[in-house]
Design brief:
Blueprint: E1 3-8, H1 13-22, E2 31-38, E3 41-48, H2 51-57, E4 67-73, E5 88-89, E6 95-100, H3 106-115, H4 127-136, H5 141-150, E7 156-162, E8 169-174, E9 179-182, E10 187-190, E11 202-205, E12 210-214, E13 219-223, E14 234-235, H6 240-244, H7 251-257, H8 259-267, E15 271-272, E16 275-276, H9 285-290, E17 293-298, H10 300-317, E18 321-325, H11 326-329, E19 340-346, H12 352-363, E20 367-372, H13 378-382, E21 385-388, H14 401-421, H15 426-437, H16 439-447, H17 450-460, E22 465-470, H18 473-489, E23 492-497, E24 514-519, H19 525-537, E25 541-547, E26 559-563, H20 571-589
Parallel strand pairs: 17-18, 17-19, 19-20, 20-21, 22-23, 22-24, 24-25, 25-26
Antiparallel strand pairs: 1-4, 1-10, 2-3, 2-4, 5-6, 6-7, 7-8, 8-12, 9-10, 9-11, 11-14, 12-13, 15-16
The structure holds fructose -6-phosphate (F6R).
């Protein structure tokens, strides 16, 4: 997830671009850059670090020009660095592009272009686009861009500027957001509305497969095959603050709604027609065969994701897995040697305890694999193998999209290991991949339950204590639900393995106590029904999550949220959605600072 902007008009472009990028920094801030068309040349300035670094460096420079494009980066391919920053140019520097998205077939295209004599300077997937447009450019920029994008697989929102065509910018969209701002004698392109709201409230929202030729006094919209499009102008009535949150009240709810896309972005480049391909997981079949112990180490929500990793690795790779929180693990006496694999999970890639656990493992010669959301983070640099979650920046302190993308990443790792080791049949491997592929759509359908969940929240927000119960993978996701509720609503919540209730905690259940029961494991469903009856008999207000069709549960629970049918192993990706929405609405009803809960920080870089 990156942010792009473009301007063409009568004003100085650099200031407008920088202001626009400042409003898009929530989309990533690993580096920032602008390209300005000045005296028939394109001047590019781009630097690693936040936008302020770029601003400081260009303060004394005469960047004068009325046309330009800009970018703020969330690194995916290639670590944050000046050279990997956008805009990316062709070899002569006559054209530049900014890109948000991921080009899945960039290695193939890069190899073909290298054969044709093109030289690459960055490690990015994006650079192939500037060379590809150059390759097809015979004087008609629009045709060249069309031909170039016809070769691309993946997601892109593009802004293209060519010094031979100083009167226009070209914008193209597929699977990454892109809007065109309509001004008076000036027009804009941007990843999101806040970037241009200071200048205009009139926008076109491009759909997938659409492009625009943007001049200062005209905008032509067309499909990729050149057919003109007639689009309605959207009049934006949000204020700037709401616009930064995409019209949502909080980043947390925005990020909850971003999950179908985040899951899809994390999965789709890795699931090919020949099975799972994890480019940065280099561990070989031979190396895997030597591994006799697997640890999954993480903190908080990432630890909860790790619990699913254990279930999947034990089931498909047939290897024992120990999951531990990093702060405990690092002071225990673990058995680590060269036959140990440690998988660390961390959204930020900077959590001090997780990093310490990783270093401890490396000192003892273990192989370390990381699942992280931040390219160039300490954990990503120090691990031997890395699988990035492509969730985009998570701003709300309470983790949502990082968790679901960690879950699917761990599923990919487990299946990749199982297929390398030959511990899974082809049929089973293909069947679970087919199920995983349905997740983005199923998450989307669950988000439609928000109104119902809001109603349920009305019963819970006044509670002093809430209990979560579940069995197997449902117990693991219940832990995440419980953490989510307590951290943002400050209600005391506790999670109990449902079978453990009668060994103590049942004593706390009284009339009206809310109990959230996750009951989506087919083989444990009947047991969960009994546990629900146990708490119901003590007066609990039971809110259950069950698979569609399991209607029996309605006899004992006060309300039921149904999830679409899915294999037991990956229900957590769906179950967590109502749990997140419930916590969010309870916290809003209690007037809590949802995005910045008291006493907590997004990245915990101290012990
Ligand atoms: C809770 C939450 C935290 C983090 C934990 C680890 O919503 O976000 O529990 O999961 O602090 O952080 P990372 O994943 O950055 O290592």
């Amino acid at each position: 997830m990156c942010g792009i902007v473009g301007y063409i008009g009568n004003k100085e472009a650099s200031k407008i671009l920088i202001d626009g990028l400042a409003k898009l920094e929530y989309r990533g801030y690993d580096s920032a850059g602008i390209a300005i068309l000045q005296d028939n040349e394109i001047k590019v300035r781009k630097y690693k670090g936040r936008l302020s670094v770029l601003e400081e460096k260009i303060v004394d420079e005469e960047l004068i020009g009325k046309t330009g494009i800009g970018h703020t980066r969330w690194a995916t391919h290639g670590a944050p660095s000046d050279v990997n920053s956008h805009p990316h140019a062709n070899t002569t520097g006559s054209l530049t592009i900014v890109h948000n998205g991921i080009i899945e077939n960039y290695i193939e295209i890069k190899e073909e272009l290298i054969e044709k004599g093109y030289k690459f300077v960055s490690e990015t997937d994006t650079e192939v686009i500037s060379h590809l447009v150059d390759y097809f450019n015979e004087g008609n920029l629009l045709e060249a861009v069309k031909k170039a994008v016809s070769k691309l697989e993946g997601a892109y929102a593009l802004g293209v500027m060519d010094k031979a065509h100083p009167d226009k910018l070209i914008a193209v969209r597929k699977d990454s957001p892109l809007i065109i701002g309509i001004g008076e004698d000036e027009n804009f392109l941007a990843s999101d509305i806040p970037a241009i709201l200071k200048h205009t409230r009139k926008v076109y929202i491009l759909d997938d497969g659409e492009m625009a030729v943007i001049k200062k006094d005209s905008i032509s919209l067309m499909t990729l095959d050149g057919s003109p499009i007639d689009k309605e102008i959207l009049e934006v009535d949000w204020d700037v603050e709401a616009a930064e949150k995409g019209g949502y009240d909080h980043f947390m709810i925005k990020e909850i709604y971003e999950q179908p896309k985040a899951i899809n972005d994390t999965l789709s480049p890795r699931i090919t027609s020949n099975g799972i391909k994890l480019d940065d997981i280099k561990i070989t079949k031979e190396e895997l065969e030597k591994i006799n112990k697997v640890y999954i180490i993480a903190c908080g929500t990432a630890y909860h994701a790790g619990l699913l990793g254990k279930t999947l690795i034990e089931k498909y790779v047939k290897a024992p897995v120990i999951v531990d929180v990093a702060s405990e693990f690092r002071y225990s006496n673990p058995f680590i040697d060269e036959n140990t694999l440690m998988i660390v999970v961390s959204q930020s890639g900077e959590t001090a305890d997780t990093l310490a656990a990783l270093r401890l493992a490396k000192e003892n010669k273990a192989r370390v694999m990381a699942v992280t959301n931040v390219v160039g983070s300490s954990i990503s640099r120090e691990a031997h193998d890395v699988l990035y979650t492509w969730a985009g920046p998570e701003i709300a302190v309470a983790s949502t999209k990082a968790y679901t993308t960690q879950l699917v990443s761990l599923a990919l790792i487990a299946l990749d290991m199982a297929s390398k080791k030959g511990t899974i049949t082809k049929k089973e491997y293909e069947a679970i991949i087919a199920e995983i592929n349905t997740l983005p759509k199923k998450v989307e359908s669950l988000l439609k339950e928000e109104e119902k969940i809001k109603e349920i929240a009305k019963d819970i927000y006044i509670a002093e204590h809430v209990f979560y119960i579940g069995r197997g993978a449902d117990y693991d996701v219940a832990r995440e639900g419980s953490l989510k509720l307590k951290e943002i609503s400050y209600i005391h919540s506790e999670v109990i393995a449902a079978g453990e209730l009668k060994h103590g905690t049942l004593a706390l259940i009284e009339d009206g106590t809310p109990v959230i029961a996750v009951a989506t494991q087919d083989k444990l469903y009947d047991k969960m029904l009994s546990n629900i009856k146990e708490v119901k008999a003590r007066g609990a207000n039971v809110i259950a999550i069950a698979k569609k069709g399991n209607k029996e549960i309605e006899k004992s629970a006060d309300s039921v949220i149904y999830i679409p049918d899915i294999i037991d192993e990956i229900t957590s990706v769906l179950n967590v959605i109502p749990l997140q929405l419930l916590s969010y609405h309870v916290a809003v009803m209690r007037d809590c600072d949802v995005d910045k809960p008291r006493n907590l920080a997004k990245s915990v870089t101290v012990e």
